[in-house]
Write a structure and sequence with these properties.
Elements (H helix, E strand, L loop, with lengths): L1 H18 L4 H11 L4 H13 L6 H12 L2 H4 L4 H12 L5 H9 L3 E4 L2 E4 L2 H13 L5 H8 L5 H14 L2 H12 L5 H14 L1 H9 L7 H14 L2 H12 L4 H14 L2 H13 L2 H10 L7 H14 L2 H11 L3
Antiparallel strand pairs: 1-2
Helix pairs in contact: 1-3, 2-3, 3-6, 4-6, 6-8, 7-8, 8-9, 8-10, 9-10, 10-11, 10-12, 11-12, 12-13, 12-14, 13-14, 14-16, 15-16, 16-17, 16-18, 17-18, 17-19, 18-20, 19-20
């Protein structure tokens, strides 16, 4: 209990150091913590190094990372220290490819119910982005391998790193991964977003065709990726699908995706849904518009539309969503 209390005190001190102006005494505490055997303490110290941009402590961070690679399942449970260190090194623009390669290849199996679990998925994901920014010559080989990693978090990290690279090679690798049949919807969504971020016009048709996917979750991810891209054809694609579906939940998803486009035409479509669609879809359109609650003119416009419609259920939902009375 005493040891636990001391650790909590040290963690609390480092939290204060992170949020306060740096002093020589504080920096000394950070340096001391980086030498600790306590992974949570080192993780917090790494965060402090990152927040205060203490590049002089880069060698200490690397040494700590190496230390926690040894029997990591015992010394660094859940990879807390190694993940925080890698994040800090990346933010400090460290170009030590070697340390990030070790991170992207790290697998740490820890006991779990009925067997063991690889807890290094997030570490591999962060290492992927760091390695992409370090100028490593073999980056595409590493990211292609990681796109087929056993851990979804690692696969998503590879997709984000490819988006960071932003090249034609990145696009082709991402397309190949999607076509290979990724089954985890979140990973597919990250790949869709990465493609639309790299070259939205080139990738639009490729992503848009997944609006018709038999897996509703994948179709949903495609809709959100198109909405977030805000490219001109996105609204037409989403409206077309909306017009040809009778599935209330799918229509709700499409309305949310339309709201992400954030153009006057997209807002007009949502307002029209409030004015003319069935009650359930009108409610969903109001919810989709909730992120615009700060726009007083829009809220006033909606209030007029709701009043003209004269439906008490829609009126109640409007006031519930926009907290007006």
């Amino acid at each position: 209990m005493a040891q636990s209390g001391k650790l909590k005190d040290k963690l609390r001190l480092l939290s204060q150091i992170i949020s306060a102006p740096l002093t020589p005494t504080a920096e000394s505490e950070i340096a001391k913590a980086l030498e600790s055997k306590q992974n949570l303490l080192v993780a917090k110290a790494a965060k402090a190094v990152q927040m205060h941009e203490l590049t002089a402590h880069t060698p200490q961070l690397i040494a700590a990372f190496e230390r926690f690679l040894i029997e990591g399942e015992k010394t660094d449970k859940l990879c807390h220290a190694k993940t925080a260190i890698t994040t800090a090194l990346d933010e400090l623009n460290c170009v030590d490819c070697g340390i990030f390669l070790k991170g992207i290849h790290c697998r740490q199996y820890e006991p779990s119910w009925g067997g063991s679990t690889d807890t290094a998925g997030e570490l591999r994901a962060i290492s992927a982005t760091a390695l992409a920014g370090s100028g490593y010559a073999g980056i595409y080989y590493e990211l292609t391998d990681l796109l087929y990693d056993s851990e979804p978090r690692a696969r998503s990290g590879a997709a984000r790193a490819l988006a960071f690279m932003g090249t034609e090679s990145s696009e082709l690798i991402l397309r190949a991964r999607i076509l290979a049949g990724e089954l985890v919807e979140d990973v597919v969504g990250t790949c869709f977003s990465a493609l639309m971020g790299i070259n939205p016009h080139q990738s639009f048709d490729f992503v848009a065709r997944y609006l018709e996917d038999k897996n509703p979750a994948i179709a949903e991810e495609a809709a959100f990726a198109l909405g977030e891209s805000r490219v001109a054809p996105a609204l037409d694609a989403l409206r077309n699908v909306y017009a040809h579906t009778f599935n209330t939940e799918w229509k709700r998803t499409l309305l949310i995706a339309v709201a992400l486009i954030r153009t006057d035409e997209a807002l007009g479509f949502l307002i029209d849904a409030v004015a003319n669609e069935e009650v359930a879809s009108a409610h969903h359109a109001l919810e989709a518009l909730s992120s615009y609650g700060h726009d007083e003119k829009l809220v006033e416009r909606l209030q007029v539309v709701v009043a003209q419609r004269g439906d008490e259920a829609i009126r109640s939902r409007f006031y519930a969503v926009f907290a007006r009375s």
